[in-house]
Amino acid sequence: MNRYYAMMVNLTNRPCLVIGGGRVAERKILSLLKANAKVKLISPVITPLLETLVQENRISWEKRGYKRQDVKGYSIIVVATDQKELNQQIYQEIDHQYQWVNIVDDPELSTFIVPAMIDRGHLQIAVSTSGSSPGLAKKIRQELEKQYGVEYEEYTTFLAEMREWILQQGLTNEERKNLFEYLLEPDFLCRIEKGESKDLLILKIKETIKENINKERELLS
């Protein structure tokens, strides 16, 4: 059993190929679209949802079976067919020096696998057992979903906007570090969890930070 190296990949506008048009392909394509990938789909038949994505020009589709030259030009390839011989053929025809392939439900024929994911806005938590037990990965993901609830979507957006603002304030490294640690205080997450507006909270925190910075600079002058 292989042990995998965990990494986060920027797929924005990168061409990705999906072969197969069933429910599994559907899930894989939706994940790729979340990452802003440019998805091409090859399959004689596709699900109604995938047809909708085609009509909305969110993915491109070639209504046919797989051909050998199809894999050229793609760094990420997802094979979601239920034909074992075809999956093996595609695996053999890929340039493994430059291309990454996920053969759905066959980690031994895959050069990358997709972990169980928790998606909370900017927060993404991946759980993997290196393909040894997808069931355990799913169980742990469900436990973590309870611990990191939907409030983290708003909270991580709050942190991202505050970080961008702090980096523009001309502060020292030590001042920035202290502010970043300050924003991780439990109070901010609790306030968002209780329904306080993220935008209003940001305005209040900015005012507080500006006042403190001005006071410190006055003391040093």
Question: What does it look like?
Answer:
With 221 residues, this protein is α/β, with parallel strands linked by helices. 46% of the residues lie in helices and 14% in strands. The chain has eight helices and seven strands. The protein has helices spanning 23-34, 48-55, 84-93, 134-147, 151-167, 173-182, 186-193, 198-220, and strands spanning 15-19, 38-42, 60-62, 76-79, 100-103, 116-120, 123-127. Helix 5 crosses helix 7 and helix 5 (151-167) runs parallel beside helix 8 (198-220). The protein is elongated and about 75 Å long.
Itemize the secondary structure elements and their pairings:
Elements: E1 15-19, H1 23-34, E2 38-42, H2 48-55, E3 60-62, E4 76-79, H3 84-93, E5 100-103, E6 116-120, E7 123-127, H4 134-147, H5 151-167, H6 173-182, H7 186-193, H8 198-220
Parallel strand pairs: 1-2, 1-4, 2-3, 4-5
Antiparallel strand pairs: 6-7
Helix pairs in contact: 5-7, 5-8
In short:
The protein is an alpha/beta fold and 221 residues long. It has helices at residues 23-34, 48-55, 84-93, 134-147, 151-167, 173-182, 186-193, 198-220, and strands at residues 15-19, 38-42, 60-62, 76-79, 100-103, 116-120, 123-127. Helix 5 (151-167) crosses helix 7.
Mean pLDDT score? 92
Number of strands: 7
Radius of gyration: 23 Å
Order of strands in the sheet with the most strands?
3-2-1-4-5
- Strand fraction band? 5-15%
User: Biggest β-sheet, characterized?
Assistant: 5 strands, parallel
